Each structure stands twice: as structure tokens, then as C-alpha cells.
UniProtKB/TrEMBL annotation:
Example GO molecular function: methyltransferase activity
PANTHER family, per database record: METHYLTRANSFERASE, UBIQUINONE BIOSYNTHESIS O-METHYLTRANSFERASE, MITOCHONDRIAL
Domain of life: Bacteria
GO BP: any one term: methylation
Domain Nudix hydrolase: 229-363
Organism: Streptomyces caniferus
Cited SUPFAM superfamilies: Nudix, S-adenosyl-L-methionine-dependent methyltransferases
Keyword line: Hydrolase, Methyltransferase, S-adenosyl-L-methionine, Transferase
Keyword Hydrolase: yes
Protein name: Methyltransferase domain-containing protein
Stretches that traverse the bilayer: none
Region (Disordered): 1-31, 379-398
Keyword S-adenosyl-L-methionine among record annotations: yes
């Protein structure tokens, strides 16, 4: 096996078979063999687009990389990083790089190039990077995916390593003309499509400075942006029961639903579980010193006030009167009154979703949706259509 690492992956293959990916499976690729890259490491950087020694080639890659990576300092995972040429450009642009390669000699060179920089390198399989719970803003992969045994599985794994809003930057191609190897941009777009919110292909063949020569085969970068994960505020509500009655608070001076009756409630804060949030809110609003054992979950509801409000997850906890002491109005600037009301004869001047939650509890529901439509009022309106939908479902055998 040659120890030279040619610029074009096509020339890293023996003459036959022409296209092992299509004809014989990945096991036929010499590049699938870790020893191949270990042997290639010493001269890998001799090729212009590997070593980036020519200032013009280096500047061309630096400019492209700058446009592909986030403008703010980001966590970049460079998989199959080789001798670390792109990792070094990324680090020079202010990013923190973690490089992974199966070849210890490649990694040794990468460590040397990035010595003293904010970078870490691991000898490991790029298809299963051992990065634990760490998440990255960018997974950067140049000329590696095409030679992996299962590119689709690797892409799924890599997408899972991205932080919300992160991106895959995949520099790939279909090299050689008579007997090309690699992944055409269309094929990679189809593979990445189901994982991404948006994909963009930038063709790179027409820019000879990147390669240190004219090329006519297919070379490109595919940038896949992942969807930002949806997040919701979690709110907690106390249904304090005294026989047939529940305690309601009349909102005042809060800017939301003022004048209406509502269960004592608030938002869970970062790092709090919902029970801790309920205990804290009950103490802050009505002076109760509840313990975890005082609380049971009555109902969970995803609710959304009229547009443009965002949806929330509401937990309704029940507790019995007497637990934690005597309730009193600790926040008179936000609450005009506390009063007991019969659960089977609730007043109309209530926040609509809270009323739906209490009605749902009385009817034995555990899970509800309450999704306002445009034009709905925040206040309960007995003449308006109910927006409550039970998600309890039928129980097997029930
Ligand atoms: C063509 S070189 C590209 C190096 C680098 N990405 C660059 O663009 O300069 C391919 C690199 O992928 C590495 N590689 C191939 N298969 C790998 C795998 N399964 N896990 C980790 N590294 C792998 C090789 O050791 C080699 O360093």
C-alpha cells in the first residue's frame, strides 16, 4: 500500500473495483482500513488542499470556513480531522475545536499544529465519537463520510451531537471522472434531508485555488442546519381543597388576566423540578409550608393563551386544606383577594384554562389540551366553545 496521500480520494483507490460503494460494499475500500491512513499520515500534508501550505490555498479555505461556521465563537467537532488543517483554521477563527481521528499519527500531527490552542484531539472512530454528553455547535467533516461503512447511520449519530440550532458542515465530492467514487451532492442531500430544517449545497469545483489546481469533478460542501428544539415554559398550579371547595386568587396589577380568579400558580425556574416549584410558589403566594408528601398531581395540561402567546405545560397539584398552615395573601400587589369556591359551582370570572383544568379535574381527567384560537378571550366565557380536549385516551379493557 502506498504511503503517499494523494489530493483526490479517487486516486487513493486501486484501479479495480471502479466503485466499491456501489459494487462490493464498503469493506472493499482501502480507505476503510485504519492502517491505510496511518501509513498515509507522514506525507498527507504534501497535497495542497491537505497541508494548506500555499498561502493562497490556505486563504481560500479560511474564507470558505469563515462563511460556513457561526460568526460567534463556537464548539466545533472535526471528525476524521486528519492532520488538523481545518481544525487549525477554525481555531484561528476563535472556535474551540475537538478533533477525532482513528489514526494516531494523524492525531499526533494535529496536536502538534494546534499546540497551545483551545483544542482537544481524540483517537477514535468518527462514526461513534466518544464525546459523552458534550454537544457541539458544528460537526465539521471533510472527505471522510464517503468512506464510512454506513454514512446514513453516521449522519444520524452526528446530528444527535449537535446543540439546538447546530449545523453539519460536510465537505464531500465525487472524485475522478472515468471511475468516480464518493457521494454526489444529490445523494447526500437526500440522506441529510430528514434530519435537517434546511440544507444548502455550495459547489467548490469551480474554485481552483481551493485545490491548488483546476478540477472538473464534483466537489461541494453541504451545510445542514438542525431545527431549533421547541421549548416551553412550565407552570404549576395549586388546587387547595377544603371539602367541596378550592382556593382561588384574584389577579391584580400583574399585566396578565388581572381581575380574574386563578389558582395560586407560577413558573418553574431553571433547575427546579415541578414539585419544588409548587412548594416554592405556594410559600411565596399564600404562605404555605408544604412538603412533597402534601402534594399529588391532579392533572397536566398543555395550554396556550390566544395568539401570539406561546404554549405552556401546566401541572395542577392538589393539596388538602391544613397542609402547610393557613393560607394568606402574601402578595397583595399581585392578588386582590383569596377566596374559597365550590368546585361544582365555580364562578365565571376565571382564567379560562384554569377553569378548564378545574372542570377537568372534577370530571376525572388527567391530561388535557387547552388551546385558544385567534380572537378568544383569556377569561372563561360560558357561552364560548370549550377549548378543552381530553388526552386521557381509552384504557385497555376499560
Ligand atoms: C481524506 S482524510 C481527511 C482529513 C481531514 N478531514 C482533512 O480534510 O484534511 C480522511 C481522514 O479520515 C480518517 N478516518 C477515516 N475513517 C475514519 C473513522 N472511521 N474514524 C475516524 N477517522 C477516520 C482518516 O484517518 C483520515 O485522517
Amino acid at each position: 500500500m502506498s504511503t503517499d496521500a494523494p489530493a483526490d480520494p479517487a486516486s487513493q483507490l486501486p484501479a479495480e473495483p471502479a466503485n466499491p460503494r456501489a459494487d462490493q460494499g464498503e469493506s472493499a475500500l482501502p480507505t476503510a482500513d485504519a492502517a491505510y491512513w496511518e501509513a498515509a499520515a507522514a506525507s498527507f500534508d504534501d497535497e495542497p488542499d491537505h497541508g494548506l501550505r500555499d498561502p493562497a490555498v490556505r486563504a481560500a479555505w479560511a474564507a470558505r470556513l469563515r462563511s460556513w461556521l457561526p460568526s460567534a465563537p463556537a464548539a466545533v467537532l472535526d471528525l476524521g480531522c486528519g492532520t488538523g488543517s481545518l481544525a487549525l483554521l477554525a481555531a484561528e477563527q476563535g472556535h474551540r475545536v475537538t478533533g477525532v481521528d482513528r489514526s494516531p499519527r494523524m492525531i499526533a500531527q494535529a496536536r502538534g499544529k494546534l499546540a497551545g490552542r483551545d483544542a482537544a484531539f481524540l483517537v477514535a472512530d468518527a462514526a461513534e465519537p466518544p464525546v459523552g454528553e458534550q454537544r457541539f455547535d458544528v460537526v465539521l467533516v471533510r472527505h471522510v463520510l464517503w468512506a464510512l461503512p454506513d454514512p446514513a447511520a453516521a449522519l444520524r449519530r452526528w446530528a444527535g451531537l449537535l446543540a439546538p440550532g447546530g449545523r453539519l458542515v460536510l465537505v464531500e465530492g465525487r472524485w475522478g471522472e472515468a471511475e468516480p467514487v464518493g457521494i454526489p451532492a444529490g445523494e447526500l442531500t437526500d440522506l441529510v434531508g430528514p434530519l435537517a430544517a434546511r440544507t444548502r449545497v455550495e459547489h467548490l469545483s469551480h474554485d481552483p485555488v481551493l485545490w491548488g489546481k483546476e478540477v472538473t469533478d464534483e466537489r461541494y460542501v453541504l451545510i445542514a442546519e438542525l431545527p431549533r428544539r421547541h421549548t416551553e415554559v412550565v407552570d404549576v398550579h395549586l388546587v387547595l381543597r377544603r371539602g367541596e371547595e378550592v382556593l382561588l386568587a384574584r389577579r391584580s396589577g400583574t399585566g396578565y388576566a388581572d381581575g380574574l380568579l386563578h389558582a395560586p400558580s407560577g413558573h418553574a425556574e431553571d433547575g427546579e423540578d415541578v414539585r419544588e416549584a409548587m412548594i416554592r410558589e405556594a410559600a411565596e403566594e399564600i404562605g404555605l409550608r408544604l412538603t412533597p408528601g402534601d402534594l399529588r398531581v391532579g392533572l397536566v395540561m398543555q395550554h396556550c393563551a390566544p395568539p401570539p402567546a406561546r404554549p405552556r405545560i401546566g401541572w395542577f397539584f392538589e393539596a388538602e386544606y391544613g397542609a402547610g398552615g393557613e393560607p394568606w395573601n402574601r402578595e397583595p400587589d399581585k392578588c386582590a383577594e383569596l377566596a374559597w369556591h365550590r368546585l361544582d359551582a365555580l364562578p365565571d370570572d376565571m382564567v379560562a384554562y384554569c377553569r378548564a383544568g378545574l372542570d377537568g379535574l372534577r370530571a376525572g381527567h388527567r391530561f388535557l389540551l387547552h388551546w385558544h384560537r385567534p380572537g378568544d378571550a383569556v377569561a372563561h366565557d360560558p357561552s364560548a366553545p370549550s377549548r378543552a380536549v381530553s388526552l386521557d385516551g381509552a384504557r385497555p379493557g376499560g
